[in-house]
Structures are given as C-alpha cells and as structure tokens.
Amino acid sequence: MKLSRTLFLGAAAAAALASASPARACSVCGCGDPLLAASDPAAITGKLRLQLDTDYLRMDAGTEGNPNSTDQLSQWSYRFNAAYRPIDDLSFLVTVPLVSKTMKASEGGATTPMSDLTGLGDIEVAARYAFFRSVDLAKQRAWEVAVTGGSMLPTGEHNATADGVLIDAHGQIGTGGWGPFLGLAFLFEQKDWLAFANASYRVRTEATYDDGSKYKFGDAVLWSVHGQYRPMRRLALDLGVDGRYAMRDRQTEADGNLVPQVENTGGTVLSAAPGVYFEAGAGIWLFARGQIPFATSLYGLQKVYPGFTTGLQFQAF
Q1: 45 pLDDT band (50/70/90 cuts)?
Q2: Contact in structure between 48 and 82 (CB atoms under 8 Å)
Q3: pLDDT average, residue stretch 92-96
Q4: CA 7 to CA 20: how far, in whole Å?
Q5: pTM attached to this predicted model
Q6: What's phi and psi for 43, nearest 5 deg?
Q7: Mean pLDDT throughout 196-210?
Q8: The dihedral of CA 10, 40, 4, 223: what is its sign?
C-alpha cells in the first residue's frame, strides 16, 4: 500500500514536469515528451484526473530574408487536460488549449507589432500502454516500461491575416497540420525516490494556406530524464533535463517556389527542468515547473528563453 501510494502521488512531478504544449507551433519551442502528463497520479491509479494550467514561453528568431531584423514570439497557453485509465496498463490523455500569441519585429532598436492572436489551439489526444511492470513490496520498489503515442490535431486557426496579409506560420494559433508521435517511457521507484526517462519522435504534416502557400514544421525527437523526491507526504520535488532536436522547417511559397530548409528554424535545446508539487487537500494538487535552457545548438539566428507552467490537478475519482 505504501508503494502504491508513493507511485500514485510521487510520479506527478517527474511525469508531468516537461510536458510539451501541443499548441506550440515554433519548431524548437518546448522540450520533453508530449505524453509525460499521462504518467501522473490519475494515469497510474486508474482514476480520472482533471488539470488546468497556464504556460508561458518566448523565442526570438531572425526574420527570413532580413538579417537586420528579429522576430520576437511570446505565447501564453491556458490548457485543460483530462487523463483516464480504464484498465491497469492503459491510460488516455486529451489536452485542449486556449492560446494567446504575440509577434513583434525588432530592427535598429525599434519594435513593430506584427500579430496578436488568441483562440483555440491544436488539441492533443494520446494514449499510454505499460507492457511491462514489476513490483517488489518487500523492497518497496517498482519498475515500469510503457509505449506512448498520439497526435496533435489541426483544430487551431492557421489562416489568420493582419491588414489583409497572411500572418507568419509561427505566429498562427494552430499549425494547420497533424502531429503524430510515438515514444517509449521508463519509470523506476524506490521508497520516496522516483526516476523517469523517455524519448519520442513527432512527425509534422504539411499545412496548406488560403494564399496557396504551404508550410511544414520540422519533425522532432524529444526526450526527458528526471529524478524526484518526496520529503513528506504532501510535497514532491523534481529536477530533470528535457531535450529536443527539431529538423528545419520546409516551405512552399504561393508562387510554387520550394524552400527545403527555412532559415532560423530547427536545432537542439537542452533545458534544466525544476518543479514542485503540493497537495492542498481534497484531491487537489498545486504545481509549478520550469524549463531553463542551458545548452543550445540552433540553426541560424535563434534564442530560446526560460519558460514556466503553473496550475492545479484534481483527482475526480
């Protein structure tokens, strides 16, 4: 029972810490496996978990075709998540985001607004199946290996315009394409300690725009390695490293000209990912987590800033 409760409560920080927002359109924004949140308490115990969270990120990239200008992207995401486990080894996750994106161009010390959009983002649906599990009650130890998979759906608006001109693909609320992924997750617990590691590969399909142009965000490999400690029953502390490698984006302009590698897109990001969870009572957990880039190898002119997520989880039943 102690082991089961530890697994139930303690996996929250290690499993949900690095969850990438499905609404993140830029090719290198966010790190970590898309389905980490499906390994939180609800997924492990079979109960229904509801979650509300707020996420912020920012990234700068050189303006395509203008080496003296920089595009500045800021994004707030307000997400509703539901995780459900109908049987011991299988869990499902759905994430519905409301996204607010702002893009500005900076050149010669002057900043010019480019776009400011708010609306429903790309919904994510996914599943997690544990094909191996081992529990040693005498040693209070548990192992688990699971396969994860799902897809981002093209539900967000991707044809928004400003002054009659189509907004840049990275400034759109939605990606306009599908984003299926497949991954492998590993979980180990020993008393009040927990370790979690995973890796996944996400494919991006091409989006078509009203002006006849097309855009494909780069496919990406995402991974996470986390350690978590519970110094007391209601508190979980987490620290890990989240990573992402994204290929360069691809674009077909309205006149049919193909740009196989869009400049200032793609590359590698490694982020330190601290987090804390606190049980407030009545099945409610409050949490805060962050991603702090400490190593990058990005194509062209790009800069990724620290991001954070705060929110609450509720164990419905």
Answers
A1: low
A2: yes
A3: 92
A4: 22
A5: 0.87
A6: -70, -35
A7: 94
A8: negative
